[in-house]
Amino acid sequence: MTRRIRDVMSPAASAVEPMTTVARAALLMREEDVGDLLVTYDCDLFGVVTDRDIVLRAVAEGRDPGTTTVGAVCTPPPVVTLAPEDTTDHAADLMRRHAVRRLPVVERGGVPVGVVSLGDLVVSEDPGSALADISRAAPDH
């Protein structure tokens, strides 16, 4: 059953500005228990930084997390996005085509309003699956 993104997305996604250090972004990810942050500038979406970006584009390249900015390691514009009115089928298609697990959700004008993840889609479309059970499970700290 296809649903609208607004019904399955995680609203109020965490965001940082491009000049935020990678170290601060990593701390925020830990505090918020998320694997990605929207990178915004003046309420507009600039990019997305993931835990994988931090590892591959900063730590593995020997960059100093205390001085390297998320703007230097995030997925650069243009970022693939969804609108709240888009469907879960469209989201799955975009994730497949662009090999991503999370997509920012933006309203008209590019203002970010949330994020939809592969886990969100699985819980919505196949709630009895093992992946849905894993996605709903509390984090293991």
UniProtKB/TrEMBL annotation:
Domain of life, source organism: Bacteria
Residue ranges of every copy of the CBS domain listed in the record: 9-65, 74-131
Pfam families associated with the record: CBS (PF00571)
SMART domains assigned: CBS
Record keywords: CBS domain, Repeat
UniProt xrefs under PANTHER family: CBS DOMAIN-CONTAINING PROTEIN CBSX2, CHLOROPLASTIC, CBS DOMAIN-CONTAINING PROTEIN YHCV
Protein name as annotated: CBS domain-containing protein
Organism: Streptomyces tagetis
